[in-house]
Write a structure and sequence with these properties.
The chain is α+β, with helices and mostly antiparallel strands. The chain has helices at residues 6-9, 26-35, 41-44, 46-51, and strands at 15-18, 92-103, 114-126, 132-143, 149-161.
Length: 170
């Protein structure tokens, strides 16, 4: 039984683009910082950002990876608004296994950020629970309105059969 089919292999290299439609905004940055319980003055007031050498308040780094590129989509059946490959893997659970972030510069409240996801690789490996599991590697490239790269998120997702003994795959 294999999870990695020829159909899934054909997904490698697919891209999904989500354009930024509006600036991140000061309120979004403040709410995100408060949710993180981070009272860094660069995130909360202009004076703190100016003192640190920035032209405006800056966003906590991971905000751009969780922000408004997706705000114009409808939530899925689980209430999720964000990128999902919707891989044809019935009877599997998805586990977000790792994120590796790289930030090129601080992002300002006035920045409009777009993101392009690329499915880089699919690898099937044995599972300690029996059967196999599928590792999905994707990269998200975040750019500003000038098209300059501001961040990269390399993400690993693992798909595991809910019941490896009962699942049937081609």
């Amino acid at each position: 039984m294999t999870l990695l089919t020829d159909e899934l292999r054909s997904w490698v290299g697919r891209e999904a683009h989500y354009p930024g439609r509006e600036a991140l905004g000061r309120a979004s940055i403040r709410y995100f910082a408060l949710a993180l319980d981070d009272d860094n003055p660069m995130y909360l007031d202009e004076a703190g950002a100016l003192e640190a050498g920035h032209a405006d308040i800056v966003a906590p780094p991971t905000l751009i990876c969780e922000s408004c590129q997706y705000a114009h989509q409808r939530p899925d059946a689980d209430g999720y608004i964000g990128h999902d490959w919707h891989l044809p893997l019935p009877h599997c659970r998805m586990i977000r296994a790792a994120n590796d972030y790289q930030f090129m510069r601080p992002v300002l409240a006035s920045d409009v950020i777009s993101v392009t996801w690329t499915l880089e690789s699919l690898t099937e490996k044995p599972s300690s629970r029996g059967g196999s599991q599928l590792f999905v590697q994707s990269v998200a490239s975040y750019t500003d309105a000038r098209g300059e790269l501001v961040a990269i998120n390399r993400e690993t997702m693992v798909f595991q059969p809910v019941n490896p003994d009962a699942a049937s795959y081609p």
